[in-house]
Amino acid sequence: MDVWDDLPGQEKAITALRRAVAEGNPAHAWLFTGPPGSGRSNAARAFAAALQCQVPDAAARGCGQCKACVTVLAGTHPDVALITTEKVNYQIVDVRELITKAQDRPSTAPWRVIIVEDADRMTERTTNVLLKSIEEPPPHTIWILCAPSPADVLVTIRSRCRSVSLAVPTRESVAALLVRRDGLSAEQAEFAARISQSHIGIARRLARDAEARRRRDTTVRLPLRIRTVSDAVMAAAELVELSTAEATASSTERAEAEATALRTALGLEADAPVPPQQRSAFKALEENAKRRAKRATNDALDRSLIDMTTFFRDVLMLQLNASTELVNDYLADPLHAYANASRPEATVAKIDAIAEARSRIGANVAPLLAIEAMMVTLRPAK
Predict the structure, then answer these.
(1) Which residues lie closer than 8 Å to 120 by C-beta, 6 or more apart?
(2) Most confident among 88-92, 213-217, 249-253, 297-301 (mean pLDDT)
(3) What is the reported pLDDT for 183?
(4) Which residue in 66, 232, 259, 346 is deepest, having the highest Cβ count within 10 Å?
(5) Within 10 Å of residue 271's Cβ, how many Cβ atoms?
(6) DSSP 3-state assignment of 285?
(7) Which of 5, 1, 3 minimizes the C-alpha distance to 173?
(8) pLDDT score, position 165
(9) Largest CA distance in the chain
(10) Separation CA 297–CA 84 (nearest Å)
């Protein structure tokens, strides 16, 4: 197995990246774009591993077996930095740290590679701080930015990067990967690939986690229960609770662990008051935890709304007599009944309402209010 094996359905992109590695003089900045599930981060790591690969034959680099490949893919290579943010947006201080890191010469490999996940989470001001480093990088540094689409990155950055476009892989290729790499049965893999809409990471989580499958199933079935405004309000509360419970618990646990570690580092007992001169450190820790929790909650809600969209997508396909397979084919009977009781225009309006809720949550509208407004529009037409 080489480093490219975890990128099903990306043959065109892999060919271009292999060529760049073999030529030995890759561009100093790259922009990897593709919708969720296309494997942007996996492709960036594979490319970084191939650039650092120790195989003498340039055309065969990316072997997946040498020490450089193994450590890059494991996230432990000293000259490859994988940067992500658990906050809503990258902070300017984060980007300045990256720029400082980019000036360092690689210690063991030909290149210093900096991979920035979710580059679309940089504000314009933050991106402008990064611009000069991408315009005039050190000769040994390679930047790899990942974003859903080129439009999500400032044109000043986009114009200075070589673009690599990724597509959502086919369901069959994702299922084959899950069977080969994760040891799933063909039936498990096909089901997970279908309901995840070929999103590799989500497919793996759904295949392994029965609780994740239960939460998704509950979310997808919610429209079947909405008849009145009261139903809509209760469904909104349930969806928010389903989506945020796990994210909130995880964020709280991590925040407590970080506070405990800081107390230990400062020599403070668990119940000892914090001295005035050290309060700023705890305040910064608390602010970071709040940003992290907010992003985790928003991401969980967004995923749930995407899952709910698949319900109405299937309904619309049935109403239009399309030959496309259903995402939620295990709900075929209730989907047919729902489709027969409404019209395509109403279904499109419901899909638009979900998209509007996602947009409102992204714009900092209180999640419960946004979801309640959406749920009211999901009531069946009289």
Answers:
(1) 147, 148, 152, 153
(2) 213-217
(3) 84
(4) 232
(5) 6
(6) helix
(7) 5
(8) 92
(9) 70
(10) 17
Q: Which two tokens stand for residue 61?
A: 């680099």
Nearest-angstrom CA–CA distance, 167 and 43? 11
CA distances to 248, 250, 356 from 296, in Å: 8, 9, 20
Question: Which residues make beta-bridge pairs with 163?
Answer: 31
Instruction: Read off the pLDDT of each residue in 278-296 and give the average, rounded to a whole number.
Output: 74
Q: Sign of the C-alpha dihedral, residues 334, 335, 340, 344?
A: positive
8 A C-beta contact, residue 248 and residue 297: yes
pLDDT at 246: 65
For the cut 80, the answer to whether the pLDDT of residue 285 exceeds it is: no
Are 224 and 334 contacting, i.e. CB atoms less than 8 angstroms apart? yes
Structure tokens that stand for 96 in this block: 């300045």
Question: pLDDT tens across 61-76, in order?
Answer: 999 999 999 999 999 9
3-state secondary structure of 95: helix
User: Are the CB atoms for 324 and 317 separated by under 8 Å?
Assistant: yes
Residue 183's CB is within 10 A of a number of other CB atoms, namely 9
Q: Which 3 state secondary structure label does DSSP give 163? A: strand
Distance of alpha carbon 46 from alpha carbon 63, whole angstroms:
10
The yes-or-no verdict on residue 354 having pLDDT over 90 is: yes
The total of other beta-carbon atoms located within 10 Å of residue 257's CB is: 10
Q: β-pairing, 29-33 with 112-116?
A: unpaired
Single-letter code of the amino acid located at 302: D
Task: Categorise residue 379: left if φ over 0, alpha if ψ from -120 to 50, beta otherwise.
Answer: beta
Q: Which of 147, 151, 153 is nearest to 124 (CA)?
A: 153
Mean pLDDT score of the chain: 87
